[in-house]
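User: Here's a chain of 489 residues. Predict its fold as tokens.
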Amino acid sequence: MPIILNHNNALFLYKLFCTNYFKLLILILFIQLNLFQFPQILAQEQTRAKPVKLHHADIMDVNQSGGQTIRKLIGNVKLEQGDVILMCSEATEIINQNIVHLSGNVIINQSGMVLKSNKIDYDGNRGLAISDGNIEIIDGTSVLTANRGRYSTKTMIAEFFVNVKADDDSATIFADNLTYDRNTKNSYASGNVTVKGKNTNTILIGQDVVYIPNDGYMLATGKPVLFQIDTLEQNDSIIITRDTTGFRKMFSNDTILSANKKKSNEQTYFPIINLEKKYKFDTLSVIADSMEAFRKYGKEKYIFIRNVELVKSKIAAKADSAVFDMNEEYIKLYGVPIIWFDETQLFADSTVVFLRRKKLDLIFATGNTIAVTKADSTDSTRINQISGADLKIIFADDSIRTIKSWGNAKSLYFVVSDSSSDGAARNSADSIYIIFDGGAPDKIKWLGGIQGEFIPENLVVGKTKELYLPNFRWSENKPKRKFLKLNIF
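Assistant: Prediction complete.
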């Protein structure tokens, strides 16, 4: 009995088997064998099938060869087998084997599905149509194309290979290989998978993707990367050219973007692209070991599992796992995340990044928090620090405006007077505020239960690290911006 896969048990299976790469391969094999029941597996079960019957042909020629009856059909050929109708310009039928070779404007119809190709070999015993040329399936709102493929009329499952494109109401998928189940509308794509949502400004790149459209669910593995193209900002650094041969739209209508028309097998790189105007993309990129996407009823949420890296404008982050809710505009980071913003780094047990109109608005961190900022470009050891049980960073116009720490709050501040170092202040209080001006600390306020000391400059020189707060941390492993490699389509 095949196992019915939905988003709940898909995640369970992934977590169950994802402890190492070998077990991940077992998961993929499980999906292939149980969810989609690949035609080449079931084809081994030979059963008696109805013969393919001739309905019409303009010309028919019958020959005997090697004990086989071969029927040559030419012109407006139409054959039937149960609910399967086969039409083409020419056909060669091996009657004893129930096999038909169809060529010239081949069309196969089955219960509302239309399959098109220039040439198809049809095995009536197995109910299997195979094309080594360009192939297309139209199934309701789903349209699939590829260089070659096969379709089982018994299981209603299609396998497509090389330059695969699958399109429906919700998403467009590009992949090296794709298996499509007409019964459930589910798809399994593998090899250089690109997914572009129809009603979203996100693009997903991965190696293996399970797509369950009725649940609005997608599971991607193999270090998938999610790109969210937020806005287009004018930027004079991008070279502009115009191709007078015409333009082709690259994304859906919610993002107006044109690129020079090229052949389908050519590639370009994002975010640098030729445009009529000079623009820079304000893009969020998130990479992880695996990713879940939930898109339904106007809601859009993503879950990233293990080794998460995030980059957006001036902010970057690392975490063990993350949740991104696009509607509520927040990103939750778990597993001792690290956040970088300009020269400031934030460490905590968990962190929530709040956006407002897709711009950075607030960061709330909880559990063993500490924020650190380099205070002196000439001395990398002079790092201002503020720690506490909880910590909040408030932004305005993409710059830090305030940092507040409370719950056993502590601070270390290296004083600068007249552009020269002038000692350090180390304090503790119920809560501490740091007010920034121009991206640098300007004022510090200590409130309630204040204790502290000032260390003169002569006692600071050469001993800066001895003054650091107990939970001080610093990381040079800042994630780098990911680039999106796209086919022009």
